[in-house]
Design brief:
The protein has 367 residues and is mainly beta. Helix content is 11%, strand content 33%.
Length: 367
């Protein structure tokens, strides 16, 4: 009789690949973090399984040598790919397609795109002298808890019949003006605009954002729903020398920094605090139901891109009145929050741009 399972099936598969596995709370810079050789994929790579991801989401970093193309592979689940650095291309095609029946598209630093499930994909580096690094994000750990057989996900020849044609899957993103098809919830709005598509060329340059006054710091947000998919994400931008309100949500959300300099503080209710320093290409994960708060120490707006877990794990209260417990208003926060922020800015010769009124006026409207 086999022994009872004491670890996630995904974790067993991940450990069997012989690659570095980054744990803890953050990866300081995905552009420089050491990788190991992945013989099967003929590239250098590493897995990222931070506290708060276990059993829900996978993150892994892949490097492509200058001028090289990686062997194609297929995976039964969808994956979101963020270009950490470099210029390259991806070819995507279905089982049984002729070479010209798939789709080929190019990308560069900070691009974001979705690879549909059960599709072949091949990544290439178009530069002759600079490596490419990619971040892959998917729900493989959750899927392997349902079907604990890696071959089902990597050797499955099923060809979806209902998916939109790949040739149109990577066209320009479309602005949707109501929330009818939006999987991402938790902002307390019954209707909202969001962007719908499978390719976003540069998350640092993206400027089509809506105000998000509820989080403070003059924040702006874009919601993204990937086409024909339950995968989603959002990106927030907030002002220089300001900080956002503390909030919390469910597990599995991977946060990437496209641009900016600062830090985040994370803590369980009543527990010790963890400080996460960040700049471009940092990655971190707020653990399940831990409060976390983002601080901009730079002279320019900062951005963070949050790759969402399945909507069942978003972790927000259903009742808007209860949702208030998931956010700490400025007038409710402990004094150390403001004190630490001002001290950190002072070491850089900067002053806080937080208006004094935010700490005393609960109805303060950010200008």
């Amino acid at each position: 009789m086999s022994q009872p399972r004491t670890t996630f099936a995904y974790d067993e598969w991940m450990e069997s690949q012989g690659l570095p596995v980054y744990r803890g709370h953050f990866v300081p810079d995905m552009r420089t973090v050491p990788l190991g050789h992945w013989k099967e994929r003929e590239c250098d790579a590493a897995f990222v399984q931070l506290v708060g991801q276990q059993g829900v989401s996978e993150a892994r970093i892949t490097e492509i040598a200058p001028g090289e193309s990686l062997p194609p592979y297929r995976m039964a689940v969808e994956e979101v790919v963020y270009v950490v650095s470099g210029t390259g291309s991806t070819r995507v095609w279905s089982e049984g397609d002729l070479p010209d029946e798939g789709h080929l598209f190019e990308w560069h630093d900070r691009a974001l795109f979705l690879i549909p499930g059960n599709q072949h994909r091949q990544f290439s580096n178009l530069s002759g002298d600079t490596p490419v690094r990619l971040l892959h994000y998917d729900y493989l750990p959750l899927a392997m808890s349902v079907i604990p057989d890696p071959d089902f996900f990597f050797q499955n020849t099923y060809r979806p019949q209902s998916r939109s044609a790949l040739r149109s899957a990577y066209s320009d993103a479309t602005l949707m003006t109501d929330a009818a098809g939006l999987r991402w919830v938790g902002n307390g709005k019954s209707k909202t605009a969001y962007w719908y598509g499978n390719f976003f060329p540069d998350m640092r340059a993206w400027d089509k954002m809506d105000r998000n006054d509820a989080r403070g710091a003059g924040g702006r947000t874009v919601l993204i729903q990937f086409a024909d998919s339950d995968m989603s994400c959002h990106m927030s931008m907030f002002d220089a020398k300001t900080y956002k309100k503390a909030h919390r949500h469910g597990p599995g959300r991977v946060i990437v920094v496209p641009t900016g300099e600062g830090y985040s503080v994370m803590w369980p209710a009543g527990g010790e605090r963890t400080v996460v320093p960040w700049q471009e290409a940092a990655l971190f994960v707020p653990p399940d139901r831990w409060f976390h708060q983002h601080f901009n120490l730079g002279d320019n707006p900062a951005r963070y891109l949050a790759l969402h877990p399945p909507m069942q794990f978003h972790g927000y209260a259903e009742d808007p009145a209860d949702r208030a417990r998931d956010q700490i208003e400025y007038i409710q926060e402990e004094p150390w929050v403001r004190e630490k922020f001002e001290q950190e800015l002072a070491t850089k010769g900067l002053d806080s741009l937080m208006p004094d009124e935010v700490y005393s006026d609960p109805a303060f409207q950010w200008r």
